[in-house]
Amino acid sequence: MSEKEHKVSRRQFLNYTLTGVGGFMAAGITLPLVRFALDPALKTGADTEMVAVTQVSQLSSEPKRFDFKIDQVDAWYESEVSRSAWIYQEDGQIVALSPVCTHLGCTVDWDTNEEFKNRFFCPCHYGAFEKDGKNVDRTPPTQPLFVYDLEVRDGTVYLGRPRPQV
Asked: Kindly report the CA angle at 100 between 131 and 139, in degrees rounded to 5?
C-alpha cells in the first residue's frame, strides 16, 4: 500500500498516538483512585453480627439496662464500640430498646422522673416514651425508640443492630 492511498498524515498519526497514550495514562491513574474511594463503601458492615448480651434468667418485667461491646469496622479502621440496651420480658416476649432518644440523640433512662412514672425519660428536652418505646404525646420526640434485632439461643439473648419501630 502506497503512502498516497493511505490518507493519514504524520501530524494526524502523532495526534492519534498521543491521544491514545494519554487516555491510557489517565485511565491508569483514575481507576485505582476510584476503586480506593469506593471500596470501603461497597463492603458490608461488621455491625450486622449478633452479640451475646445477657441471660434470659436475668430479665424481668422491669426494663434493665445492659451494656455490651461490638467490634466495628469503619472503612480501614477497626474499633470496639460500647453500646447499651434496655431489655425486659413481658408475657413471654423479650423486648430490647435502644437508649438513644429519637429527638436529639440524648440517652434515656427508665423511671427517673416523678412526672413520667414507669416510662423512659430523656432529661435533655423532657422527652418521654412508654415502656414499649412508643413516644408520649406532647413531648419533643416524634418517633418511638429504636428496637434491637433480637435472638434467643440456649438461654442467651443476642442483639443485632437497632431499627426503627414500625
From this structure: 60
